[in-house]
Amino acid sequence: xxxxxxxxxxxxxxxxxxxxxxxxxxxxxxxxxxxxxxxxxxxxxxxxxxxxxxxxxxxxxxxxxxxxxxxxxxxxxxxxxxxxxxxxxxxxxxxxxxxxxxxxxxxxxxxxxxxxxxxxxxxxxxxxxxxxxxxxxxxxxxxxxxxxxxxxxxxxxxxxxxxxxxxxxxxxxxxxxxxxxxxxxxxxxxxxxxxxxxxxxxxxxxxxxxxxxxxxxxxxxxxxxxxxxxxxxxxxxxxxxxxxxxxxxxxxxxxxxxxxxxxxxxxxxxxxxxxxxxxxxxxxxxxxx
Amino acid sequence: xxxxxxxxxxxxxxxxxxxxxxxxxxxxxxxxxxxxxxxxxxxxxxxxxxxxxxxxxxxxxxxxxxxxxxxxxxxxxxxxxxxxxxxxxxxxxxxxxxxxxxxxxxxxxxxxxxxxxxxxxxxxxxxxxxxxxxxxxxxxxxxxxxxxxxxxxxxxxxxxxxxxxxxxxxxxxxxxxxxxxxxxxxxxxxxxxxxxxxxxxxxxxxxxxxxxxxxxxxxxxxxxxxxxxxxxxxxxxxxxxxxxxxxxxxxxxxxxxxxxxxxxxxxxxxxxxxxxxxxxxxxxxxxxxxxxxxxxxxxxxxxxxxxxxxxxxxx
Lengths: 289, 315
Fold this sequence. Notes:
The structure holds 2 protein chains of 2 kinds.
Chain A: H1 2-27, H2 35-52, H3 57-79, H4 84-104, H5 106-109, E1 115-116, E2 122-123, E3 126-127, H6 131-154, H7 156-166, H8 168-173, H9 178-204, E4 206-207, H10 214-227, H11 233-251, H12 256-277
Helix pairs in contact in A: 1-6, 1-9, 1-10, 1-11, 2-3, 2-4, 2-9, 3-9, 6-9, 7-9, 10-11, 11-12
Chain B: H1 6-52, H2 59-76, H3 81-110, H4 114-136, E1 150-153, E2 156-159, H5 160-182, H6 184-194, H7 196-201, H8 206-232, H9 239-253, H10 260-278, H11 284-298, H12 307-314
Antiparallel strand pairs in B: 1-2
Helix pairs in contact in B: 1-5, 1-6, 1-8, 1-9, 1-10, 2-3, 2-4, 2-8, 2-9, 3-4, 3-8, 5-6, 5-8, 6-8, 9-10, 9-11
C-alpha cells in the first residue's frame, strides 16, 4: 500500500512543478530550461533554513519561495528581452550555473555528498512521518497551489499573459507592460517551484544536486509537452503519465538494467511524434507555434 | 635544523616559477588541442544552425553515435582503423540525413516554429542517447588500449593522437572555409544562410542543400567524436557537453558566420584551461555559461557577427 502512496506523493510534487512551469511555458509562451534550478533552490533553501537556522517547515518554505522568486529575477530581467532560441540558451546557462554552484559550494550545500537527515515537517505539532500522511500533506499543498494558480489563470493578469503569448505587439499596443508582466509571471512560477522542492526535501529527507540537473528541467518540459500546455488538465495528466510510466514498465517485467533507458527512449519518441502531429500535447491548448 | 641560505631559497622560487610557467604552457597547449576538436564540432553545428536556424540538439547524439559506430567497427568487428573510421563517418553523415528527412523536413513543410523543431531535436537527442546506452551500457569504452607515444616541443608534451587532432583540424577547417567561398555548393550554402526564400526563387533546390548541410555537419561531429574517443574513450553522455560547447562557441564567435564558431571554440577552450590553472576545473562550466549569458546580453551578434544578422535572428 505504501508503494501506491509513494507514487501519489511523487505525482503531487510533479503536479505543482508542472502547473507552475505552465505559467511560464503555457500562458506566457516562454520555453525556459531552468525550472529545475528553481526547484533545487527551493529544496536547498528550505532544508538549510530548517537545519542551520532551526526554523519550522512552513516559515522555511515561505522564505524559500520568496528567495527563489527574487533569485529568478537575476536571469529573468536581463534575458526576457531575448527571444526564441536565445532565451532558451540563456536559461540553459542559468540552469547549469546553479547546478555548478550547488555542486561546488561545499561549505554551504555539502556539494556532491548531499544533505542527509532533513527534519520531518510538522503540521500543528503532528509529524508527517508515514507515507500515507505525507500523501495527504502533499495533496493538500498541491491542491492549495493549484487553487492559487487557478485564480491567477482566471484573473485579468492571467488573461493578459495569454494575450502576450498570442500576440506580444498587440498586447503592448493596448498599453500592457509586456516585459514587466513576463518578469512577474517568471518570478511567480519560480516561487511556486520552490514548494515542490521543499516537499521533495521533506519527503526524501536527503537531497543532493543530482536531483536538480538540466535533465530534470528537460523532464519538466516533457511533462508539459506530453500532457499539454496552456490549460490545467494538460500538466496534471502529463505529470501523472510521466511518473506512472516507469512503474508501468516495471509491471511489464522489463529488466531494471534497460528499463531506465527504455523510459527515456519513450519520452524522446513521444516528444518527436507529438511535435510532428500534435504540438499542443494530448490535452493542451498551446503548441509553441 | 639549518637555516636555509638565500641562494637555495632563490633557486627554489625560480624552480617553482619555471614549473608554474611550464604548466601554463602545457595547459595552453591542451586548450589549443581541445579547441581543435571542438572547432570541428562547432563548425558542423554552425553549418546546420546558420542555414536552417534549427537549434540542432540532436547534434550531440549524432556526435555520440559517431564514436560508438567507430567502436563497433574497430573493436567489436576488429576491422582496420582507416576502414572503421571511414565507415563510421559515412554512417554518421547518413544519420544526419535521416534526421533531416524524418524529423525536420516534415516540420519545415508544415511551417512549424523553430521552438517546435528545437523540442523535436531534444526528443531525438534523448531517444538516441538512451538507445546507445541501452545497447552498449553506461560504462566508459576505449577505442585503443595502452599508452600513447608522446612528442616533446620545448615545455609542451603532446601525445600522438593529440598531434593527429591538431593536424586534422588545421587541415580540414581552412579547407572547408575555402570550399565555402569558392565552390558552387559553398555558394548555395551561403545563399541559404542569407535568405532561404530568395535562394529557392533563384531555382536552387534548398531541400537538397539542407540534406547536404546535415550530412557534412554530422560527419564533422563524427570526426571530432572519433578523434576525442581515440584519446580519452567514450560513454553515452559525451555528446551533451560537446554540443553545449559548440553552441556557446557559435554564439561567442557570431551566429551567421562560419569563421566565428572556430574562433569561439579556440577562445573557449583556452579560457577553460586558464580557469583550471587559476581557479579549479570544478568551476569550468560556470565560467563557460557565464560567458554565454554575458555574450547573449551584451553582444548577441558575437565577435564577428554583424548587427543585421541579429535583427534577422530575433524576428
